[in-house]
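Much of what follows relies on a compact textual record of a protein's fold. Here is one such record, which you should read through line by line:
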Amino acid sequence: MSTALLEHPEPADEVACRGSAAATLGELIARREARVGIVGLGYVGLPLARTIVEHRFAVLGFDIDVRKVQALNAGRSYIGHIPSASIAALRATGRFEATSDFGRLAEADVILICVPTPIDKHREPDLSFVISTAEAIQARLRRGQLIVLESTTYPGTTTEVVRPLLEASGLKCGTDFFIAYSPEREDPGNLDFSTGAIPKIVGGDGPDALRLTAALYGSFTSKVVPVSNPATAEAVKLAENVFRAVNIALANEMKLIYEAMGIDIWEVIEAAKTKPFGYMAFYPGPGLGGHCIPVDPFYLTWKAREYGITTKFIELAGEINNSMPQCVVERLSRVLDRKAGRGLAGAKILLVGIAYKKNIDDMRESPALKIFDLLEDRGGQVDYYDPFIPIVPMTRDHPNLAGRKSIRWNRARLASYDAVVIATDHDGIDYAGLSRSAKLIVDTRNALQRAGVTSDRVCKA
């Protein structure tokens, strides 16, 4: 199969699969009788489950968090941008069920793995969730199943890690069961691109695996892009995220340079993006957040060392982006000294927004949490306001912040702070009211200017 874009993938009943196991599964997919299991019901797995059910497949969702399973089976959502009404609608179809019983993996004809792939403190891949999931599948693996890894990882994971674990069952990959890689492309909170509207990359381990995977995803997505093998598909995902990380780092570095020159980086970018060719706008900020951009590039740098290659460019981008929370704190310190005649020690500071991006309740790798810690380390008295995160949950890197509560938004409270730092530019925040009440605002997102608010109490960072 070529790597050309398939806007209307050929249906599975027209796909010639050589083996009887592949042919049987192809027929089930074509008739939408294949039961799809999804392991990991988070920001990737849950939207995927919703889309597949909406296209008339039955989905059995797996998660180790019993509370999530109970919520979903009761028709409740635990993700802010996914309304509970949509989960209730899924349950009402009779085609969706969640479970923490991994013994039921044998019930699924297709299993999609959507588990976390973090990095450890040494910036090396942590595949423990992928490995434990593969081991759980191996214990129940049966003939005729298709296993697709969606978690972002380094090239080679599907065939070098997942396949051997599954073949420990005694079944043979490519004959008895099939594996593939199809990278997740979720953008939480982006209303312009739903799961089914985003083109899907698929790389199968062998021709039957590729045909089956393309047929499956073609049943509920608008476009399928087949590539030659799983490693290529894994590389595509890393290429996408490395591209973003490097360009954001460039924007952050230019921000520091232009700030020193008295030039507004935001004005520069707005003017530059009027060029209809050769330029793509990327914006600076207080640092990178989310599970992808701060993490994924280091999967490639780790794998590159196996081939004796040093990824200087990618690692430099990571250093720049990781340094931005400290830059924000230094900027605030200088502004407080110049405009208020005081330091950070004892200063009352409000962080506006602690989600990693606007309009969602996702705090994974949020730079606001790093800023929070840095400010308190410098003696600041820090509160936060975030309408999407009323209470800070337990996080691996910032356990000391767990249980902190968002303040109530009112003029008198805002006026009581020595400085306000806008770390996340949620829509719906009264930026005009904030500018009238706050003594000093450090805006890391250009939120006030975009809201049409100007004030001599506002400094950009």
Observations:
- Residues 1-16 have pLDDT under 50 and may be disordered.
